[in-house]
Amino acid sequence: MTLPDTASHPAGADHTFQVDLRGLVDLLSHHLYSSPRVYLRELMQNAVDALTARHALEPAAPSDAFGIRLYADGSLVRVEDDGVGLTEADVHTFLATIGRSSKRAERIAEQRADFIGQFGIGLLSCFLVADEIHVVSRSAHGPDAGAVEWRGRGDGSYTIRTLPASARPRPGTTVTLTPRADAGEWTRPERVHALARHFGSLLRHPVTFDDGTGAGVSINPEPAPWARTYPTPGSRARALAAYGEDVFGFTPLDTIDLDLPAVGLKGIACVLPEAVPAGRRHGHRVHVKGMLLSEQAEEILPEWAFFVRCVVDAESLRPTASRESLYEDDTLAAVRDALADRLRAWIARAAASDPDLLARFLQVHHLAVKSLAVHDDEILRMLLPWLPFETTDGHSTLDQFARARRTVLVTSSVEEFRQVAAIASAAGLGVVNGGYTYDRELVHRLPEIKPEVTVADLDPATLTAHLDPVDRETELAAAPYLALARDALAVFDCDVALRTFQPASAPALLIDSREARHERTRSQLAREQEGGLWGDILGALRQEAPRAQLILNQLNPLVRTAVAIDEPELARTSAEALYGQAALLSRRPLRPSESSLINRSFLDLLAHALRKDS
Ligand SMILES: Nc1ncnc2c1ncn2[C@@H]1O[C@H](COP(=O)(O)OP(=O)(O)OP(=O)(O)O)[C@@H](O)[C@H]1O
C-alpha cells in the first residue's frame, strides 16, 4: 500500500471563516425569534443594559437621571439612550463582531447577572426590518472620548467614522433604522408605540415615545402595579386583579402578591377561575429589570402550580438567546423554590383563615390539588380534610365523612363502588369511591392527619362478612335451588350464596373485581391453549383464580319466590336472570357470554309467562 504523497501538499494556509450575514439573519428570523417585532425589544434591552452600566459607573446619579427616548415617524425608527456608550475600539470589538458581547467580558464576569444581553447577536434582529443599522455613540468612560459613527449593512460590510464631540454632546447611544418597505407593519409609529409599551411598560428608567410630532409621551408613566401605593388593602387587591385581567384576559379567582426579596423578584400570581387539566403548564410573563422578555416562560414554577399564571419582574434571571425561555441555573431554581413556597403559604392561609376562598378554590381546582397532595406532604396535611370525595354519604369532605366513623373503607374502582355502595351504606359501612385518579391513594393517607381513623380497602370478603347469614332452616330449604344456580353459573366462575341485607328491594348483589375477572380470563385462556406455548406461559402466571359471588337477598320477595321454584328449568333461568340483573346493575362492561345469557333468560322467562297465561 502506498501512502499519498504528502510532500506535494504543503502545510495548508490559514483561513478565516466567512459568515454569510443574510443566511444568519434568515436563521435567526425563522428559528430564534417568534416575530420581526422583537427588533424593538432587542434595541430597548441594549439601551437598558447600557443604562445599568452607566449607573454602575456613576452610582451617585439619581435613578431617573438617565433615560431612553424612542422615535418613529413612519420613515425611520430611532432608539436613543443615555447609557454607558461605546468607544471606537468598543465599536470594532462589540458592534462589528457577531457573537461578541461587552456583557460577557472577563472584567465584568461578576456583574454578568446585571445585564440582560450576553450573546452578542441581539442587534442582528434589526436586519429583520431594515437593511442598515446606523449607530452613533459616545462613551461615558473618560471625558475625552469622542463620538463614533457605525453603519452596519445586511451584506456584512460596515463603516466607522469618528465624529466631532459636538455631534453628540452627552454620552449615550443612538440607533437609527430606515425600515424596508416590507417591514412597515412593525415600524409604523402606532405599532412602535404599542410595542414599546408592551415590552417596556414596567421599565424603571424614564422611557418616552415621539411619533414625529415632537411631543414625547411616557410609555411607563407609573411604576408596576405592585410597586404603587394604595389607600387600602382592598383597593390594592382590586388593582392587582384588574392588572391580571388586562394581561391574561380572565378575572382571577384570587391574586397573590409576590414579593420575594431573597431572589430579587416581585409580581403577582393570578389564580385561574376555571379548572385546567392536571399537568398542563402555563406560560408566565417574565420581565427582567422591568423589560418584558418572555410571555411564555414555563420554568419559573414547579409543575404542580398549574392553577396560576404569573407576571413577574426579576432582577437576575437569565434568558436564553431567543428570550422565550430561561436558563436552568441556580438562580432559576431558587426563584422556583421561592415561588412554590409563596403559593403554599397562600393555600395555608386560605385553609386557616379564609374558608370561603378555600371552598371556591377547591371547587375549581380540586383535581389539581389532589395531584399535588399525592407528592407534597405539606399540601396533603393542609388540604386533605377539605377535599371532596364520592362516598356512601354522597359528596363529602374526608373530614366530615370520617367524623362519624372510626373505619373508612375505600374501593379500588368506580365499578366496585357502584356495586356495593347501596348495600354497604344500608349495612352501616362508610365507603369512599377510590376509583378516580389519586382518590384511593389519598384516602389511605388519611390516618397521617387523623390517626384515630383506620382506612381499609373494601374487598368482597369485608362486605360479605357484614351481610347477615340466613337461619339454618331457610338455608336447608334453599339448598337445592342454590345448587342448581351454582351449576347454571359455573361458566362464569361464580359462586352463589343466600344472605339477608338491606335494602330489601335489592334482589341480588354480584361481588366481583376487575382483578378477579382478569385472573379468570387468563385461567380460561390457559385452559383453552393447554400444551401450546401460550398455554404454558399463561399457566405459569396463573394464580388461585378468585371467584365472583352472587349473593341473593332473602329479604327480597322475588328471591323468596325463586328459591321455592320446584321446576328445575325455570329455577335455572331465574338464577341466570338474577345474575344478569346484578351484572347490569354493577354497570361494568358485559362479556358477550353474559349478554347472551341475559337475552336468553329474558326470552325464556317471557315464554314461560306467556305459556302460563295461555
Ligand atoms: N445601546 C447600546 N449602548 C451601548 N452598547 C451597546 C448598545 N447596543 C449594543 N451595544 C454593544 O453591542 C454589543 C452587541 O449587542 P447585541 O445586542 O448584539 O448583543 P448583547 O446585548 O451583548 O447580547 P444579546 O445577543 O444577548 O442581546 C453589546 O454587548 C454592547 O457592547
From TrEMBL:
The keyword Nucleotide-binding applies. It comes from the Bacteria. Keywords: ATP-binding, Chaperone, Nucleotide-binding. The lineage of its organism: Bacteria, Bacillati, Actinomycetota, Actinomycetes, Kitasatosporales. This is HSP90 family protein. Coiled coil: none annotated. Belongs to the heat shock protein 90 family.
